[in-house]
Design goal:
Blueprint lengths: L10 E8 L1 H5 L6 H14 L3 E9 L9 H11 L5 E4 L2 H4 L3 H14 L3 E4 L4 E2 L8 H28 L12 E3 L7 E3 L4 H12 L4 H10 L5 H9 L3 H4 L12 H8 L8 E3 L2 E3 L7 E3 L6 E3 L9 H14 L24 E6 L6 E6 L13 E3 L4
Parallel strand pairs: 1-2, 1-3, 3-4
Antiparallel strand pairs: 4-5, 6-7, 8-11, 9-10, 12-13, 13-14
């Protein structure tokens, strides 16, 4: 005889999430508070807790959260047949994707879903209110995104630095938020790069020198100081600490931070739902002069820019590329750079994304042949 549905043993996932935006908005529901609520609910309703899945600091519009994906993997492996959250917004703030999980994916896998504060429990059938709650949750995310963006633009207009890390050669001022101080331990690296450039060295040559002389990269320095990017550097060969790229050197040589100016809003997310970065037109940048002490003089910086410009868009035979600066990468918005393939009997020119090969945040390697253009 078939057993009643309510005698099923529910192997339960407790899913907890809190984003930085939630904290900025003063939203109650810390990870600890969520844990206490979910544990108590599971105990009172006879749910067998298999594991907790915690995404702390992850936006609800992003469903590529590591613990969320681990929970999905466990559902696929048959370990989980019940998911409990504090409310629907903890599951997500993208109403389309949240609805796909609650109305399509979970039912198709035989997974019971419970959102405690929203009185959603799929054992009782579909919730007519849930789709509307999902829309409201997305609206909340949209409004929060607008408020955060407006606050950031105000800070940009004042020239404040609010990146996760200070640029190479600087440290964050502990006494003044958003202000940069020269780092006496690393300023020499910036000075060395500009000195080589002003004496005629190109980016490729400078990169080789930095590698040969074992000058540590910005990423390695952040790993040593803050433990960041451990997935890249922990246990890596010693050479990884000095693995400079041409793109890194070019970026430093063009960075006005080193003459005491602050430039912000160079790139932004596609939308509050899509965190992929796209480059913004220069007229939308925020440029504030003399916000901190310079490492490089204006004279040296301008001389380096002139040297860079004299090399730009010139092939070895001296001709100028007619598409230079005109074609952009459809994915990241950066300019396509010219290159040549001379490895076969029929060499050809091509354009490729100039952001490819930029280390931690590189774009993919896609290109178009010059003769096709």
């Amino acid at each position: 005889m078939k057993q009643p549905y309510n005698t099923t043993i529910y192997n339960t996932a407790l899913y907890l999430r809190l984003s930085r935006d939630d904290e900025l908005q003063g939203e109650s529901g810390s990870i600890q508070t969520q844990r206490m609520m979910l544990r108590q609910y599971a105990a009172e309703h006879g749910l067998t807790v298999v594991d907790e899945y915690i995404d702390d600091g992850w936006s609800g519009t992003n469903f590529e959260r590591p613990s969320f994906q681990r929970m999905i993997d466990d559902i696929e492996d048959g370990k989980i047949n019940c998911v409990v959250t504090k409310d629907l917004s903890r599951l997500g703030r993208n109403y389309i994707l949240t609805g796909q999980y609650t109305e399509i994916y979970f039912p198709s896998k035989g997974v019971r879903y419970i959102a405690i504060n929203d009185n959603v429990d799929t054992i009782n059938g579909e919730s007519e209110l849930a789709p509307f709650l999902n829309i409201l949750n997305e609206m909340h995310a949209r409004q929060t995104s607008k408020k955060v963006k407006a606050a950031m633009h105000t800070r940009f207009a004042n020239g404040a630095h609010y990146g996760a890390y200070a640029p190479l050669g600087y440290v964050k001022d502990p006494d003044k938020k958003g202000h940069l101080l020269i780092d006496p331990e690393t300023r020499w690296i910036v000075e060395k790069i500009f000195d080589l450039a002003v004496h005629g060295r190109g980016a490729a040559s400078i990169t080789r020198i930095l590698v040969e002389e074992k000058v540590p990269t910005p990423g390695w320095l952040n790993y040593e100081r803050y433990g960041t990017f451990a997935n890249i550097y922990a246990g890596a060969p010693a050479e990884k600490a000095y693995a400079w790229t041409i793109a890194q050197v070019k970026s430093i040589l063009k960075e006005e931070t080193y003459i005491g100016h602050s430039i912000h809003n160079k790139q932004s997310n596609i939308s509050f739902k899509n965190k992929k970065k796209v480059r913004k037109p220069q007229e939308e940048w925020y440029r504030v002069e003399n916000t901190h002490e310079a490492i490089i003089s204006e004279e040296v910086f301008q001389k380096v820019q002139e040297l860079i410009a004299s090399r730009r868009r010139k092939r070895r035979n001296g001709t100028t590329q007619i598409f230079a600066g005109l074609i952009k990468c459809a994915d990241c918005g950066w300019s396509l750079a010219y290159g040549e393939n001379k490895q076969n009997k029929n060499p050809y020119g091509y354009y490729h994304c100039s952001k490819h090969g930029q280390g931690l945040r590189q774009c993919s390697m896609h290109y178009i042949r010059y003769d096709v253009l």
